[in-house]
Structure formats: structure tokens, C-alpha cells
């Protein structure tokens, strides 16, 4: 069985999958954009578990990922990853962004999660140029799936806006 890589337009907090990925900040305390939406929809259980992670390890570094319960969300788990703030493309941003996807997928495998949904990490307030971010995301996921073909049933890129949806659609049609 091979992994299906899918594309959807919509709200990640409504998605029923084993795990959704949160574009978190390093404090894990919630914020704006996807992060705020996931914390609001998931309720206080997610924040409580994030606070426990903070106590143990002081947050989450850029490019790394941690996992929590999903609170009131329709998924089983939330994987929180911290994308890079885009500076000029010369501060290791590409590798850090790719690590967000790879480390989230590794964490999903470790937790026997077979379907994972990703938002567009770092493309909001972190200002990563959307075309480059989409290319990095698709490449990182495709590379992981090529190396681990049986790990997942599906990986979903879920785009909230039309611009990201169009970018991912073009990239995935080439695959």
C-alpha cells in the first residue's frame, strides 16, 4: 500500500485524520493564524499539555516537533512544529522548514499515526515566500514517503487560501 499525497482547501481544525500539524511558535503557548485556530478549536487540553512540554524542555526549537492530545478537535493528535521566520533565504531557512515536515512525519510514525495533515508552515506572519515554501514542503514529504512507503495511508496538504492551494496543486500535478 502506498501513501496518497492529497490536497484540500479548507480549515485544518475540521479535518478528521490521525494527526494535524500545527504551525506553532517556540513557546507552544498559542498565537495567531493556524496556531491560534488550533488552540481555540481544541480547547484548554492542548495548552495544558504544551505547558507540560515547556516545563520539561522549555518549548520547541525551530525545525523540531512535539506532539500533544487533540482536545476537542476531530483528529487523534496534534503535532506542533516551529517554522523559521524568513529573513533573506541565507539563514538556513530552507533546511529548517524541510525539518518541520520531516520531524513531524517522524513523530507521526513513532506514534503509529497513519494519516497526517499539514498547513502551510511559515507562510503567514513568518513571511516565508509561498512558492518556495510549497516546493520545500512537497519535496520534504515526497522524500520521506519515498524512504518510508508503508508508513502512511495519506498525507494531506490543507490550504486555507487560494494562493497556496494553487501553488500546491501545480506542484503535485507534476509529481
Task: Describe the model.
With 175 residues, the chain is α/β, with parallel strands linked by helices. It has one domain: Leucine Aminopeptidase, subunit E, domain 1 (3-Layer(aba) Sandwich). 42% of the residues lie in helices and 19% in strands. It contains five helices and six strands; from the N terminus they run ββααββαβαβα. It has helices spanning 33-42, 44-57, 93-110, 130-147, 162-174, and strands at 4-9, 19-24, 65-69, 77-82, 115-118, 154-159. Strands 1-6-5-2-4-3 form a six-stranded mixed sheet, with helices on both faces. β3 and β4 form a beta hairpin. The longest helix has 18 residues, at 93-110. The model has no long low-confidence stretch (mean pLDDT 96).
Keywords for this entry:
19% strand, 42% helix, 175 residues, single chain, alpha/beta, 6-stranded mixed beta sheet
Instruction: Output the CATH homologous superfamily.
Output: Leucine Aminopeptidase, subunit E, domain 1
Largest sheet: 6 strands, mixed
Instruction: Note the beta-strand portion.
Output: 15-25%
Number of separate helices = 5
- Domains, number: 1
Average pLDDT figure: 96
What is the SS-derived class? alpha/beta
Contiguous uncertain segments of 5+ residues: none
Report how far the terminal alpha carbons are from each other: 18 Å
Radius of gyration computed on alpha carbons: 15 Å
How is this structure best summarized?
The protein has 175 residues and is α/β, with parallel strands linked by helices. It has helices at residues 33-42, 44-57, 93-110, 130-147, 162-174; strands spanning 4-9, 19-24, 65-69, 77-82, 115-118, 154-159.
